Amino acid sequence: MAIQLARKGINVVLVGRSASKLEDVTKEITSKSRAEVRSVIVDFMDDDLNAGLAKIAQSTSDIQIGILVNNVGISYPYARFMHEVDAGLEKSLLRLNCEVTTKMIHLYLPSMLKSKRGAIINVGSGAVGILPSYPLYAVYAGAKGYVEQLSRSLYVEYKHSGIDVQCQIPLYVATKMSKTRPSFTSPAADYYAKLAIACIGYEPVITPYWVQSVMWFIITLIPEPIMDSILLSNNLNIRRRGQAKENAAKKE
Predict the structure, then answer these.
(1) Res 183: pLDDT
(2) What's the CA gap between 68 and 59, in Å, rounded?
(3) What is the pLDDT of residue 177?
(4) pLDDT at 27
(5) Which residue numbers in the chain have pLDDT < 70?
(6) Helix axes of 49-59 and 100-115: crossing angle, nearest 10 degrees
(7) pLDDT at residue 178, rounded to an integer
(8) Closest CA to 238 of 131, 135, 127
(9) 13 bridge partner residues
(10) Domains plus CATH for the chain?
(11) TM segments (predicted)?
(12) Distance from C-alpha of 75 to C-alpha of 124, rounded to nearest angstrom
């Protein structure tokens, strides 16, 4: 989304923990647009989260943040029952999916209120907005459920203050990380980003790609017990494959 916003002439601030990745994105943006780019290196999993937030605030103290995109997040390495989720993974899930999103909103909401304009985009998950349950990913699904309800509530709170709050729910997007190719149901990242930006200012919860919106509707027609059974069976298979891969790695 940063690249697409820059193409529209909007200056961007990138936040991440990898200096090399931030540098790569900065080079790509500057090669495709005239937008100004700032990078802030912050690891949100550091013990002192407030120090990282203070660094972000200081780095942007001289500019007005008009659009805040919260897309930081983490899921399970592979499916597992809740009693198998260790303390470290649980902390990461809640920190990155809930706490960071909340604190980033707190950071820039006052200035948006003062200027009476702004947009806050929180990236949700089909595990919550579309599926009736997401067994073996319970903590992740619960955390993303928080993001969706937070977005819905803030939309109502601030829609008369000139601030658009929205939770965007993607299903499948073809990226290098997902190692999937673009298809009819899984759009390329650049194309999806264009759609995501075009949807800003509409419903509080939205799936930008129309094909995935149709998929969402079809899923709602399937009785919940049947859908629950399908999801449980599928995620149990993911768990078995993940455990086998993990055990094989331990033997090496």
Answers:
(1) 86
(2) 15
(3) 55
(4) 94
(5) 176-179
(6) 30
(7) 58
(8) 135
(9) 38
(10) 64-251 (3.40.50.720)
(11) none
(12) 12
- 19: its two tokens: 């200096």
* C-alpha torsion 93→96→99→102, nearest 10: -130
User: Which pLDDT score, from 0 to 100, does residue 245 have?
Assistant: 94
Catalytic residue, from 140, 155, 192, 209: name it.
Answer: 140
pTM of structure: 0.91
Q: Is 158 a catalytic residue?
A: no
User: Which DSSP string corresponds to 160-195?
Assistant: GGTEEEEEE-----B-TTTT----SSS-BHHHHHHH
Intra-chain end-to-end CA distance of the chain, in Å: 40
Encoded amino acid at 53, one letter:
L
State the Cα–Cα distance between residues 119 and 93, nearest whole angstrom: 25
Looking at residue 250, what is its pLDDT?
85
Note the pLDDT tens digit of each residue in 148-178. 999 999 999 999 999 999 999 988 787 765 5
Q: Yes or no: say if 170 and 199 are a contact pair by the CB < 8 Å rule.
A: no
Partnered with residue 122 across adjacent β-strands are: 70, 167
- Give dist(CA 13, CA 240) in Å, integer: 41
Residue 42, SS3 per DSSP: coil
Two tokens, residue 53? 């937030």
pLDDT at 230: 97
CB 143 within 8 A of CB 93: yes
pLDDT value of residue 131: 92
Q: Cα–Cα distances in Å, from 247 out to 86, 194, 237, 239, 243? A: 17, 41, 15, 12, 6
Note whether 78 and 242 are within 8 A (CB).
Answer: yes
Q: Do residues 157 and 184 make contact, with C-beta atoms less than 8 angstroms apart?
A: no
